[in-house]
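Why show two proteins at once? Because comparison is the fastest way to build intuition. When a single record is shown, students tend to memorize it. When two are placed side by side, the eye starts asking what differs. So, the first record is below.
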Amino acid sequence: MVAIEPRATSSASMLRSPRLLLLSLIILGAFTFIYTRSQYHIPSLPHSVLPSSLDVNAPSTTSTQGKPPAGSSADVRNTTLGFERVFVINLPERHDKLDAFSLAASLTDFTYDVVNGIRGDTVVNKTLPALDGLPVGSRIVRDRISTALVLEDDSDWDVRFKDQLADFATGSRYISGTSTKPRSPYGDDWDLLWLGHCSAQQNPSDQRRFVIQNDDTVPPINHRINFNTVPDLTQLGYDNSTRIVFRANDGVCLYSYALSYRGAQKVLRWQNNVKKFHPIDIGIGYQCRDDPNFKCIAVFPQMVDSHKAAGRQSRDSDIGSYDPNQVREKGYTYNIVRSTRLNIDNLMTPGPNMALEDQWTDLPQMTGPRRTRFD
């Protein structure tokens, strides 16, 4: 018997054999991936440790009266909240604000992309009176994004944000007149959704409302802060645990809003034709009021507001100046019952006994599920 020794394969011979080289690279890559995963495992957000109102797969707890519009709100529970993209506006030098936003977003299970904000003092005068501060509009049009939610980097929302959005989406489809199954859970015939504002008025030519009653995410009227006056919903025949979705006529503040692709086109067209400069939120409000083809849908009480963190007040805003010696002992957010920012520590220690804190102790007691109807 003749023994045959195995022939050694040199690296040079491997290079001369493309198939062998490719096979070797595949094996090496697979081994590297498996080894890296075993050494550095990054877990995804475990739904099982979240309270039901934070679980993206939690069933609806809303009872609806009347025939709902076509479509489903289920997609609002995905990681882009039912939109194609989510953007946060952030000045590059304010990494502190972006860090805090990142933590809040991760703990309520959504992802986002960053769009750099623009400082007012860097805007060239010759570009006025175009609206300043809407870089995301150009991004939506350039990248042909169907829908995008926009948040400021200091914005805050209730830990039950996805529950709120599920009801809002039903209302948006109703107000926008959705009659066939839409591509977006918010409907396909809207330009702007105004989720975070400090004032919004209803369009007098459209008095329809989507009404959400018995809503424990609604702040009591004595804890609501609004520009000018705080609307009293009892004057409309509702109690003050009610939230309404409606066609907007005007508004102030842009803590959070969504634009459709069509809406972003209209905003860019409008801002390049206005004859007088306005801050971005005022300009958007005027467009909702004066352009009959610009469909704005808003919610009151608002679902997103600006957070004021504990610590030096000079960190609050990049508009205006603050005394660097003024220190805030406790953070707060207007109009948000169960603030995500104020529950960060609780959300980071999840479990069956996790306690989430409300901002106020004098909240009315709710019995039964939320109830919705179409007015």
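Second record. Ask yourself what differs from the first in the token line.
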Amino acid sequence: MRFISLAPLAVAVSRAGGLGFIGAGENVSDLDNQLQHAKTLLTESPVTRAADGVLPIGVGIINWGADLETALNALKRNIPAAVWLFAPKRNADLVLWANNIREITHRRTKIWIQIGTVADALEIAEVCDPDVLVVQGMDAGGHGLERTASIVSLLPEISDVLQNAGKGDIKLVAAGGIVEGRGVAAALALGSQGVAIGTRFLASREVNITTGYQADVLRSKDGSVSTVRTKVYDTLRGTTGWPGRYGGRGIINESFHDAENGQVTEENRKKYQEALERGDQGWGEHGRLTAYAGTGVGLVKKVQHAWQILEEIRNDVQRIQSQTSNTKSKL
């Protein structure tokens, strides 16, 4: 949710009982402003469960391009409840980030680190000792590993490996393809302690998104075939710093079709720039602009406030768990 989930959405999610994150991405130059904006919003309407001196929101950082010193300066002025680290050039880079964040915030900020393989989970657990591992499966929208599994198999295997390595105290948060209560209930049954939801909030009223992008999300169905993980959109957007094993899952459009049919990059890029000039008309099935979204996009059907989304999900989870409990009692 890079540059899409900003202070208003992060605060709205936390007010509704979740933990909202500011998607700072790889450019943390505006992070100080976003944290100050969140502080102002929270002053106007506080979250009662917040710890003293800690903002009840998180910050998401894409490490391959982020400047550590700039981030630390912002985090020192306004301490968030959590920092979510993702996509370093090398896993070892995360040690420096984790240690410095803990020092600058006096360990009041929890360290979340996103991974997508069993090997990465074990390595990060051993060298960084994070508070939370975000286990991202193949269904996730936006950027993730090109080679990974769904959380159905990935999360239980990671849980077992961490238990065997004496790292079972690290909390696991499931991510990828979860957009409503059934997905949340399934992730909890798999052993996660929580879930991360992105695509569903593309249709929230507080999200920083264009009308065309949001309409593209709402019209898309059958995310297994209407989305794809690819490097095409990064190439056309000029976002070329991602480590080689990552790709971005987005809604398929003419830009992708042309790339698949062998259209030279420069011609495709020219058409992409022309689409940008058309504004909201540049998105859509026959559009060209990037709309990152996960495979669960077909379950996103209407625009709602963040609190409505969370309330609906919680009610569905409670209903499903109650039904499951009743079924068990009859066996």
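One difference worth noting in the second protein: The longest helix spans residues 306-330.
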